[in-house]
Amino acid sequence: MPKTPQQYSPSRAHPRLPLATPVEIQYGDKKLLGHTENISLGGLLVHCAKAPAPATKVTVLFNLPNGTTIVTPGIVRHAHGKKIGLQFHSLPPQDRKALEGFTKRMEGYTVRGERKPKRLHVTLSATRPGEDKEEQLAETVLLSRKGGLLICRASFDVGDRLHLYCPDFKRTAEIAIVFRRPCGTAGLVELGFEILDSSDFWGPEFETQ
Predict the structure, then answer these.
(1) Backbone angles phi, psi at 122, to 5 degrees
(2) 64, 90, 92, 158: least CB-packed within 10 angstroms?
(3) Residue 144 has pLDDT above 80, yes or no
(4) Are 184 and 156 in contact (CB under 8 A)?
């Protein structure tokens, strides 16, 4: 039976991964602003105030958490209320490479235990005597009960122990960097970290894990 627009999912051929990031959709002389709910190498699920009709050709612009900007043609495959399923069309090679790398890393993190995508602004500072105490800004990408993945421009390395402060929770924890990978531009790095001195730093959503 052929798929109708309501049955179509642009992500079905690729793993769908949660991602909340602003997105801009242009078509004709119109521009819509919204945010993504999930992403795959094939497309996006987007929330916005007004949905273009299925089969509308659009241009999609959004940023990956590592700072990479994706601009690509797309087509609306389904629209239900304020949710739009977008399929990428002719994804530029450099954008496809960046998106493929991001989704593979995200998939790797999400299959290892319970991890939740969550963007929080945090600060990092060194803990050892004699090291630079200046706080460095960072943003989380994924959280788990005992750690997470964040992105920053600091020169921390695997094995470093740091103080992590989360203004949203007004809490500080000692963490150890267990993974480091350059990403994006302008010195951005991904840092995987383990929380050393707290079992419930992120609050009740992880307490039963």
Answers:
(1) -135, 170
(2) 90
(3) yes
(4) no
Q: What six digits make up the tokens of 56?
A: 């509308």
pTM as predicted: 0.56
pLDDT at 154: 83
Query: How far apart, in whole angstroms, are the C-alpha atoms of residue 106 and residue 144?
Result: 13
Question: Phi/psi at 103 (nearest 5 deg)?
Answer: -65, -35
Cβ neighbors of 30 (< 8 A, separation 6 or more) are 52
Host H or E run for residue 150: strand 147-152
| Cβ–Cβ < 8 Å for 77, 59 | no
**What letter would DSSP give residue 206?**
G
**CB-based contact 147:192 (threshold 8 Å):** yes
Residue 4 pLDDT level (bands cut at 50, 70, 90): very low
Rounded to an integer, what distance in angstroms lies between the CA atom of residue 113 and that of residue 68?
A: 27
**Closest to 40 measured CA to CA, from 10, 62, 60:** 10
Eight-state DSSP code of residue 131: S
Q: Which domains does the chain have, with CATH numbers?
A: 17-111 (2.40.10.220), 116-206 (2.40.10.220)
99-115 average pLDDT score? 68
* Secondary structure (DSSP) of 174-191: EEEEEEEEE-SSTT-EEE
CA 72/CA 62 separation, integer angstroms: 9
